[in-house]
Design goal:
Helix content: 25-40%
CATH superfamily of the largest domain: Aldolase class I
Strand content: 15-25%
CATH topology of the largest domain: TIM Barrel
Shape: elongated
Number of strands: 20
Largest sheet: 8 strands, parallel
Low-confidence stretches: none
CATH architecture of the largest domain: Alpha-Beta Barrel
Number of domains: 3
Bound molecules: NADP nicotinamide-adenine-dinucleotide phosphate
CATH class of the largest domain: Alpha Beta
Radius of gyration: 26 Å
Structural class: alpha/beta
Length: 500
């Protein structure tokens, strides 16, 4: 079972111990990052393993490898020696591991480590990419039997991430640590067991004075409680969400909670991919069971579907992938999620007699327009790219226009309900408002499909004018519940509904 390791990057030994204590119940081991310690504290490292009371990796990372040690190699080696000196017969008082870079050749250090039972982690870091031959590098790094080879790389594309998974498969059974750093690589921390990695690194991301964590690193709590790290085994089915940049998503929390509640041996992982093609290849590699699809890929996944529902076919947008023997089946659950949410909000059974403006013409707008039409509403579609507004409106005989003065004027005939479906205003771009030319009258019902932030600038303006407002959270929950039913062929558990 892959172990959970917390990187301790505090300035003092005392502060590191304090943070260790906070997370202890989640941890198998910690890494003392001596490169972050204040100068005087560096003299105190030798007693740290005894104080920590669990296995400790001794690491002094250089700047060039993404660390904080700016001194010369002489002083780094001397510090490492201090950490390994005066070893005790009780091995729990010694460092359990020492991280030595692959290009560091100091036999005396290695000998000291081996003599006292400190295992060497032979590491390679690439902060610019993943390198040419990850498998070859892993194999070449085995100098002596009980060393653990570590390759930590910074993928630039999702293809890079895929190559790391391929290297993991080819080196299955080899004791190693393998991970992708950065936002693209969070999935390698969650799936460390799948990658056959000896451990998964976590960071104290909630502690403001604990620097050094790269973007995308998880806290031990999230790894265990949100991603169910301890339950992920070789038989665990992998689900996930495809999107880009996918900086914010609530789907992992939703699905991992229900997996846990229903005791389903599955895990749900974010897969930010810069290319659908790369993701689809990767999905086969890891035998992905199913995925949610979000911005900007709901339309771009269509060519990869072996089977699609009539709804996906007519909409031209898919937000759910299910693996089957033929490849991928595509479903759309945004449609029902949207209409159930808005109809309940306005207390109606359909959109009869409602004059509606749909802002946007992307994947989500397609689902919205189809439902407005199915449920007898009349609509105006406004979009930045005019031709897309026209293409979306035409089959339903809806009016269409641009996000400009002319379009806003047309809204006078379509303002019972306004539905915002673009990604403008979504965190972190909190200032965006796609309809800033429109002044709310206060009589409109206004829905924004965005759910983070809870109130976009657009919704804030609407509320200030006295409009009834609804954000996209309820729709998200509803479409995810339908997605769950599609993945597992059963209803979302009603007991969990009552706990929401
Ligand atoms: P998408 O297919 O990429 O479409 C993006 C839409 O936003 C297009 O209409 C695009 O216009 C417009 N847009 C992007 N940047 C713009 C800008 N700077 N100014 C004006 N318009 C801009 O994305 P999607 O899948 O439809 O998702 C859109 C939003 O809906 C996202 O925020 C997503 O989180 C949300 N959503 C929520 C739920 C839910 O359950 N609550 C479900 C689905 C989607 P152009 O055509 O001109 O590019």
């Amino acid at each position: 079972m892959a172990k959970i390791c917390l990187c301790l990057t505090g300035k003092t030994i005392a502060r590191n111990l304090e943070v260790l204590e906070k997370y202890r119940k989640y941890l198998d081991m910690v890494e003392l990052r001596v490169d972050y310690l204040d100068p005087d504290e560096k003299f105190l490292i030798r007693r740290f393993p005894e104080m920590a009371g669990l296995p400790v990796i001794l690491t002094i990372r250089r700047l060039m490898d993404g660390g904080n040690f700016a001194g010369g190699e002489g002083s780094r080696i001397s510090l490492l020696s201090k950490g390994l000196a005066f070893a005790e017969a009780d091995r729990r008082h010694n460092f359990a591991y020492v991280d030595l870079e692959d290009d560091l050749n100091v036999p005396s250090l290695e000998e000291a480590a081996r003599t006292f039972g400190t295992r060497i982690i032979r590491s390679y870091h690439n902060m610019q990419g993943v390198g040419d031959d990850i498998e070859g590098r892993l194999r070449s790094m085995f100098h002596v039997g009980d060393e653990i080879a570590k390759v930590a790389v910074m993928p630039q594309t999702f293809d890079d991430v895929h190559r790391v998974y391929q290297a993991a498969r080819k080196t299955a059974g080899m004791e190693k640590i393998l991970l992708c750093m950065g936002h693209l690589g969070t999935n390698t921390s969650i799936l460390a067991e799948y990658l056959d990695s000896y451990l998964s690194y976590t960071a104290a991301i909630d502690e403001e004075d604990f620097p050094g964590g790269t973007a995308g690193q998880l806290s031990p709590r999230d790894l265990v409680e949100l991603y169910r790290f301890r339950d992920v085994g070789s038989q665990t089915k992998i689900y996930g969400v495809l999107g880009y940049p996918l900086k914010i998503t609530s789907s992992p929390e939703f699905f991992n909670t229900v997996f846990s509640f229903e005791k389903i041996d599955a895990v749900y992982v974010p897969f930010p991919s810069d290319s659908v093609e790369s993701f689809m290849k990767f999905a086969r590699e890891i035998n992905l069971s199913g995925a949610s699809v979000t911005v900007p890929y709901k339309e771009k996944v269509l060519p990869y579907l072996g089977h699609k529902t009539a709804e996906v076919e007519s909409l031209g947008a898919c937000n759910t992938l299910i693996a089957d023997s033929q490849g991928w089946s595509g479903i759309n659950t945004d449609t029902r999620g949207f209409s159930d949410s808005l109809l309940q909000f306005i207390g109606a059974r359909d959109f009869r007699k409602k004059r509606i403006t749909i802002v946007g013409a992307g994947g989500a707008a397609k689902a919205v327009a189809a439902e407005v039409f199915r449920l007898k509403g009349k609509a105006l579609v406004l979009n930045r790219t005019l031709i897309r507004a026209r293409e979306l409106a035409a089959p339903y005989r809806f009016a269409w226009g641009g996000l400009d003065g002319l379009g806003v004027e047309l809204m006078n005939g379509f303002n019972d309900i306004i539905i915002q479906t673009t990604s403008v205003g979504m965190a972190p771009d909190l200032e965006g408002d796609p309809l800033d030319l429109y002044s709310f009258k206060g009589t409109e019902v206004v829905m924004d499909l965005i759910y983070k932030p809870e109130r976009t600038r657009f919704l804030t303006r609407a509320a200030a004018a006295g409009c009834r407002i609804l954000n996209g959270h309820d729709m998200l929950m509803r479409q995810a519940k339908y997605q769950y039913s599609c993945f597992f062929g059963k209803e979302y558990p009603s007991k969990l509904v009552s706990r929401e």
